[in-house]
Design a protein that fits this description.
Its EC number is 2.1.2.9. Pfam families: Formyl_trans_C (PF02911), Formyl_trans_N (PF00551). Keywords: Protein biosynthesis, Transferase. The longest helix is centred in the middle third of the chain and has 25 residues. This protein has 8 helices and 20 strands. The strands form 5 sheets. Strands 5-2-1-6-8-9-10 form a 7-stranded mixed β-sheet. Helices cover about 25% and strands about 25% of the residues. It is of the alpha+beta class and about 325 residues long. A hairpin with a 5-residue loop joins strand 11 and strand 12. It has 2 domains: about 180 residues, Formyl transferase, N-terminal domain (Rossmann fold, 3-Layer(aba) Sandwich), CATH 3.40.50.170; about 100 residues, Formyl transferase, C-terminal domain (Methionyl-tRNA Fmet Formyltransferase, Chain A, domain 2, Roll). Helix 1 runs parallel beside helix 5. The chain is elongated, with a radius of gyration of 22 Å.
Length: about 325
């Protein structure tokens, strides 16, 4: 089949690589425009754009898929299908029927669970034991289209969202190729999603990544792992500056620390929660690189009594917002 691959971040690269190695022809890629990144804030093409350019594949970077020049080029290319992996923009309804087999989205959950932009992060934070990936036909609505195929993946006890997404991106690439192969052979029909078991996974903001030490250690642990590497969990120091947090280790035997109370020893830094303490791993002081928590505590010259996150402990849990959409999110 003639394909236009739609994707933007590095997590989409395994799928692009798998399609390039498949029997199908990738005639172009659709990706988000270059964005500013790094200390110099210079414009950088997306990982998908860089990979496609290296292969000599045409790169389409409309500011919006509503761009008329882009739509005209899409029609000229006449794709049989548009496989989609984390493209990051809404596809207008009038474009959904343009490819013969439609837009085939690889989503990193077993639908209808965790519809939305951050399914892996929410699965980790919710304490799910199993998640997976689905290929489905993009339609008007938020990840509501009929499903072609699924796979499952165990969530390991110490998985971060980044760990889990890395495995799913590789396994999902194989699922995407199998789906396109079967569509070309005419042996696959999508199945409507069930009406129950629906959960939403909206994008996580920096605010969502604030740690509430008044929550039990298990919830603190899951939130931090779910927000690693992005948007990055954090708490605040008594002076109001932020301290980024890498994954922590629950310490059930330590129960005498108040929520947010920091206890710095020579080799470890413990923080109290609503249940028991957690041991800090890497931390990221404002304006500095990540470092071991004990090394940070020695150099920070902390006062004898330190309470982390006083403001966030006082105002309760942060909401993660609601997902809504009237067009297809790719």
């Amino acid at each position: 089949m003639r394909l236009i691959f739609a994707g933007t971040p590095a997590v989409a690269l395994p799928s692009l690589e798998a399609l390039l190695a498949s029997r199908h022809e990738v005639v172009a890629v659709l990706t988000r425009p270059a964005a500013r990144a790094g200390r110099g804030r210079s414009l950088r093409p997306s990982p998908v754009a860089e990979r496609a350019a290296a292969e000599g594949i045409e790169v389409l970077t409309p500011v919006s898929p509503r761009d008329l020049d882009f739509q005209a080029r899409l029609r000229e290319l006449a794709p049989d299908a548009v496989p989609v992996v984390a493209y990051g923009a809404l596809v207008p309804a009038e474009l959904l029927d343009l490819p013969t087999h439609g837009w085939i989205n690889l989503h990193f959950s077993v639908l209808p669970a965790w519809r939305g932009a951050a399914p892996v992060q929410h699965a980790v934070m919710a304490g799910d034991e199993v998640t997976g990936a689905s290929t489905f036909l993009l339609e008007k609505g938020l990840d509501t289209g009929p499903v072609f195929g699924t796979l499952t993946e165990t969530i390991r006890p110490r998985d971060t969202a980044g760990d889990l997404l890395g495995r799913l991106s590789v396994a999902g690439a194989e699922l995407l190729v199998r789906t396109l192969d079967a569509l070309e052979e005419g042996i696959l029909t999508p199945v409507p999603q069930p009406g129950d078991g629906i959960s939403l996974a909206p994008s996580l903001s920096v605010e969502d990544a604030r740690v509430r030490w008044t929550h039990p250690a298990q919830a603190v642990d899951r939130r931090i792992r779910g927000c690693t590497p992005a948007p990055g969990a954090w708490t605040s120091l008594p002076d109001g500056t932020r301290l980024g947090l890498g994954p922590v280790t629950p310490v059930p035997e330590v129960t005498d620390l108040a929520p947010g109370e920091l206890q710095a020893g020579r080799k470890e830094v413990l923080v109290g929660t609503a249940s028991h303490a957690v041991r800090l791993g890497e931390v990221r002081p404002a304006g500095k690189k990540a470092m071991n928590a004990a090394d940070w505590a020695r150099g920070a010259r902390l006062p004898e009594s330190v309470l982390l996150g006083a403001a966030e402990n006082a105002d309760g849990a942060a909401g993660s917002g609601e997902a809504a959409g009237v067009e297809a999110q790719a």
